[in-house]
Amino acid sequence: MVLLTEESPLTKLLKKADAAAMAKNKGVETIGDLLEFVPRKYLPPNELTDLSRLRVGENVLIVAEVAAATTRPMRNRRGQLLNVVLADSAGHQLEVTFFNAYGHERKLRPGVRGFFIGQIGSYGRRLQLTHPDYELIDEQDTAGEIEYYRTHWVPVYSTTGKLNAFRMRKLVHQALDTVDRVREPVPDEVRERRSLLGRAEALELVHRPPLTKRPDAGVRRLKYDEAFVLQTILAQRRKASEALVGTPRRPRPDGLLAAFDDRLPFELTDGQRAIGEVLLEELGRERPMHRLLQGEVGSGKTVVALRAMLAAVDSGGQAALLAPTEVLAAQHHRSISALLGDLAVRGMLGGRDIGTRLALLTGSQSAGARRAALLDAASGEAGIVIGTHALIQKHVQFADLALVVVDEQHRFGVEQRDALREKGVAPPHVLVMTATPIPRTVAMTVFGDMETSTLRELPRGRSPIATHVVKADRPAWMQRTWQRVAEEVAKGHQAYVVCPRIGEPDPGSILSSDTSEEDASDWEPVNWSEADWSEADWGDDGEGQPAQPPSELTGVYTMWHELTTKPELEGVRIGVLHGRLDPETKEATMRAFGAGDIDVLVATTVIEVGVDVPNASVMVVVDADRFGISQLHQLRGRVGRGSVPGLCLLLTKDPGERAAERLDMVASTTDGFELARADLQFRREGDVLGARQSGRGSSIRHLRLTRAEDEEIIAEAREDAFELVEADPDLRVHPALAAAVATRLDEDQAVWLERG
Ligand code: ADP
Ligand code: MG
Questions:
Q1: Residue 716 has what pLDDT?
Q2: Among 270, 293, 302, 641, which residue has the most ligand 1 atoms within 8 Å of its CB, making it the best to mutate?
Q3: What is the mean pLDDT of the chain?
Q4: β-pairing, 318-322 with 401-407?
Q5: Of the candidates 500, 507, 537, 545, which has an alpha carbon nearest to the alpha carbon of residue 522?
Q6: φ, ψ for residue 99 (rounded to 5)?
Q7: Which residue, 596, 602, 590, is CA-closest to 555?
Q8: CA 470 / ligand 1 centre spacing (Å)
Q9: Contact assessment for residue 685 and residue 705, using Cβ atoms and an 8 Å cutoff
Q10: What is the dihedral of CA 555, 556, 557, 562, to 10 degrees?
Q11: Are 315 and 250 in contact (CB under 8 A)?
Q12: What's the rounded Cα separation, in Å, for the pair 712 and 463?
């Protein structure tokens, strides 16, 4: 027999087509991947199945005999139905059905015995199995099988293509028996300290657990491995950034920061003040700051960041503020201009000498505006440069970039952060802001190379937001909804109506073209990365509902058209905003809404992040079931920002059970941390790590970031890895760990390249 290593390709054990299916559907490419392919569940052995004791929903391995098998055409559809009756030794029976499954009738003849794996369902009042995986006992080799099933838990793998549960198990066992030596990335002393099994032993236990033991200890070890390798990478990143030598940036005693603090129209909250101190202290050090600032929507992160930026400018450097969308970049530009007032127009009429200038750089601004902004950035005239991804491009230069602030981190990858960092003469300080509260597991994994600060309180005077789920198929409820909007407008307030898609601008053509092919590209691009978080896993396990085609969702234009003809909203000024408008229109619309010249803004999720109009008091979210928990929470943070109480109405037609649960969750609490935790549970693990890590193959395989017990594993692995890297930064005495780290980084890199 050929000896295999963990690096051997799966084709060593499988036909090309089957190996390709495993790679594509399960991310299993090598023998090592296969060994890490943990069973979905374990079944107790079921030697002499008593068919009279089965229950609906139960997952079973059954040993039984085929008593009868009949094939007949299906009644309502084309094709054949194979009906098999199984019997146990006492004569109890169970029905098994196969639809259009040609070939099975030749194997499942009366009299043969077999193993059947499946979930018990029911048809009418009778129990039945549909399309079970099975293996006949009179096939070769089954003496060993019977013995195996008598003495072991039965691992059940998630299967793909032609690989049924039985073949999968044999395949993995074959890998276990042929792999020459299993790699061991965790050093002995760590294993001892944490009472971990050896990796080879763990794999054996996971895939071939004897009845006398439980597989959990094996799984725990694999989780630890995964956490340990990840944390080693983070520890190395941290170490590398600690070794960087930057420039200390200290504000002048009577400089820009002091002048700004003097003119601030409100008092900083205690949190803002305390974190401000930390930032100033870190900016004053040689080692570049690398900090994550998290805080609820509306907690006032911008002012905190702005004060740090002003300190950087005071010291003679520049600050860059990177925003995820043009709307947000423009808004930052506007609101920071307003906060700075005459401090932001140095060299211009009314500008103060102590002040600085702002530049705005976005992808689609006019050539002239762009040139001016580039020049201001390169010459150093602009102390603060605000922009979108455009800031990252090669030709953007700074005279002396001191501080990089990244707003709403989850939309940017590590690479983009790094690209901006490289624009400094010396490595600049970095501050990353996020409004999505981050559970500890994620903080330790995804942001594990950064220090963290959290703004816990909202500024005083914030009003509570009430949230209600509204059944959109009840005309009376809908009428009430628009009445509420009209009432708010009558009081002088404003409203958002958020739709999941853009739709067709010309209302006359809505009916004819709304379902056209091109509409697939009609999704709000900004919406995507985030909305996917919770939507990607719909239908994944058969419990969620299938994703609706985009054409069934309400578009901004359809909504706009509908609202403009509503009697309730007569005389109300209604505007439209979405990501595909040209930048001037976007900017003008936001400005008009900000100034109160538009009463109701019908928009996509472009307004999700950071948009700040304190006078807006109502938000109506259309097809709310299409949005994720965190996204809805972010969205409603747009209202109730002033002294007016906020109201958020979540419209949904037929949400399905899981979506209904999400909506109720959002309506039931405004605690961002609680929602973030709940949200995690609706997502796939990989998605938690953001686009970069969510690709197959490199996604988190074993850890469940939503589980408390894994939090402890991650914390332990983090401690161990950081200690190890402290003593041996280049992993010289830990070659096996170094290899595991290299493999992991390669996988991430591959996924990253694939996605462009
Ligand atoms: P976020 O953390 O969501 O980015 P912002 O920084 O946009 O929040 O702040 C929301 C609003 O609260 C802004 O209008 C800002 O000027 C205001 N704000 C910030 N800090 C305070 C404070 N201490 N007191 C009153 N208002 C504040
Ligand atoms: Mg913000």
A1: 95
A2: 302
A3: 82
A4: parallel
A5: 500
A6: -95, 130
A7: 602
A8: 30
A9: yes
A10: 90
A11: yes
A12: 37
Q: Per-residue pLDDT tens for 605-616? A: 877 665 778 899
User: Angle 301-314/326-340 helices, nearest 10 degrees?
Assistant: 70
How far apart CA 587 and CA 594 sit, in angstroms, is 10
Beta strands in 44-141 (DSSP E): 59-73, 80-87, 93-99, 113-123, 126-130, 133-136
- Asked whether the beta carbons of 662 and 534 are under 8 A apart, the reply is yes
Strand partners, 385: 320, 359
| pLDDT tens by residue, 109-159 | 898 888 888 888 888 888 899 888 888 876 566 667 777 777 888 888 887
Sequence-distant (≥ 6) Cβ neighbours of residue 651 within 8 angstroms:
470, 472, 478, 481, 620, 621, 622, 623, 624
Cβ atoms of residues 436 and 630 within 8 Å: yes
Tell me 108's DSSP state: S
Give the atom of ligand 1 at the shortest distance from the alpha carbon of 637: 3
CA 163 to ligand 1 centroid distance, Å: 56
Identify the CA nearest to 469 among candidates 664, 706, 314, 331.
Answer: 664
> Distance between CA 3 and CA 623 in Å, rounded?
56
Q: Are 36 and 10 in contact (CB under 8 A)?
A: no
Number of the ligand closest to the Cα of 296 = 1
Q: Which amino acid is at 176?
A: L
647, 625 contact by CB (below 8 A): no
Q: Is the pLDDT of residue 228 over 90?
A: yes
For 9-20, write each residue's pLDDT tens digit: 999 888 888 888
Residue type, 38: V
Q: Cα-flanking dihedrals φ and ψ of residue 292, to 5°?
A: -105, 130
Between strands 290-295 and 429-434, the pairing is parallel
Tens of pLDDT, residues 460-486? 767 778 999 999 999 999 999 999 999
Looking up tokens 């006398």, which residue turns up? 212
DSSP three-state, residue 522: helix
Q: Which ligand has the shortest distance to the CA of 610? A: 2
**What was the pLDDT predicted at 533?**
26
DSSP code, position 492: T
With beta carbons less than 8 A apart as the criterion, state whether 646 and 366 touch.
Answer: no
Could you give the CA distance from residue 195 to residue 716 in angstroms, rounded to a whole number? 12
Say which residue, 748 or 16, is predicted with more confidence.
16
Cα 28–Cα 33–Cα 38 angle in degrees, nearest 5: 95
CA-closest candidate to residue 373, choices 356, 340, 394, 397: 397
Residue 439 parent element (H or E)? none
Ligand 2 centroid–CA 434 distance in Å is 8
Instruction: Check if the beta carbon of residue 378 is closer than 8 Å to that of residue 361.
Output: no
- The full length of the chain comes to 756
Helix/strand/coil percentages in the chain, nearest 5 = 45, 20, 35
Q: Which residue has the tokens 């600085």?
A: 356
Cβ contacts of 460 within 8 Å, gap of 6 or more: 269
Output the CA–CA distances (angstroms, integers) from residue 471 to 345, 364, 476, in the order listed. 50, 39, 10
Verify whether ligand 1 is closer than 6 Å to residue 652 (CB atom): no
* Ligand 1 center to 294 CA (angstroms): 14
Q: Are 420 and 400 in contact (CB under 8 A)?
A: no
The string of DSSP letters for 245-263 reads: --------TTSHHHHHHHH
Cβ contact 472:478 at 8 Å:
yes
Count other Cβ atoms within 10 Å, centred on residue 111.
9
Ligand nearest the Cα of residue 272 is 1
CA distance 596 to 227: 51
What residues have CB less than 8 Å from 117, skipping those under 6 apart?
43, 59, 60, 61, 62, 132, 133, 134, 154, 156, 165, 166
Contact 390, 352 (CB under 8 A): no
Q: Return the structure tokens found at 625.
A: 């079931």
Model pTM? 0.68
The residue whose two tokens read 């999941």 is 500
